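Journal club side-thread
Mid-discussion, someone asked how the predicted structure for our own chain would compare to the paper's figures. Pasting it here so we can look after the session.
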Amino acid sequence: MEYREEQGSMALVRVKRAGQVTLPAELRKQFHLEEGDYLEAEAVENGILFRPVSVVDRQQARQQLGVLLDRVHVQMPPSNQHPQEQEEEITRIIKELRRDDAAVRRS
């Protein structure tokens, strides 16, 4: 796996046992990556694309979502959507926001 910065420099990384690679410190710093963070790996035309992603415990997220929805429902009439549909819509919106944020960070 190689990468190119805006200045055109590259770093060569080696695939180790169990497919592990070490990202260069400059990239980890640039993308605020720390040990334990997750990256999404995607096969693209010219190689492999790694994207930082956030992973959240579903049960904890549901609880926090419930608290947030309770606050919103105080101000808005009740939704006709089933809670599962509401969660799926919120998940879709969050994914769109993450995609937009990633596009801004790449440019």
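Post-session note: The chain has three helices and four strands.
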